[in-house]
Amino acid sequence: MTSIPQITIYTDGAARGNPGPGGYGVVLLSGQHKKELSDGFELTTNNRMELLAVIVGLEALKVPGSRVTIYSDSKYVVDAVEKKWVWDWVKKRFKGKKNADLWKRFLKVYEKHQVRFVWVKGHANIPGNERCDQLAVEASHEPMLKRDEGYLQSQT
pLDDT tens digits, residue range 53-104? Predict the structure, then answer.
């Protein structure tokens, strides 16, 4: 019988300007395994990058039903899930809500695992969070940034 993996994910998003160039950083930990993920976008928002970091972290998991603890300094993301706001947004079909494209993507991957969120204070010397911040900021400075199509479409 295979045991259910226990995964720790640290996430962070960054934007230089809001909107502006941005990036996300993710650190996944499971036993002795560690994986880091990051990417940058030419025009986006901090909240989009915070949420995208969580999505990318969850999408990287290979075993459905994993027990996951996500550490994030984003009140936007943590409160939306832990205070169950996102399910009210679903009932209202995300009418008037920003980042609906990402929230829908999040919900698809969220339901595949047993996820718990823990809010952490940013820039408080928490190694996983500090590393994600570094990854996110570095990604926002990459020379060939991607287009955040979801953000750009929401602006038209």
Answer: 999 999 999 999 999 999 999 999 999 999 999 999 999 999 999 999 999 9
| Global pTM value | 0.96
Strands of 16-113, DSSP E:
20-30, 33-44, 67-72
Please list the active-site residues.
Answer: 12-13, 50, 73, 123, 133
Q: 116-137: buried (b, 16+ CB within 10 Å) or exposed (e) per residue?
A: ebeeeeeeeebebbbbbbebbb
Beta-carbon contacts of 95 under 8 Å, excluding residues fewer than 6 positions away, are none
C-alpha radius of gyration, the chain, whole number? 15
CB 87 within 8 A of CB 36: no
| 8 A C-beta contact, residue 71 and residue 116 | no
Residues 6+ apart with CB under 8 A from 156: none
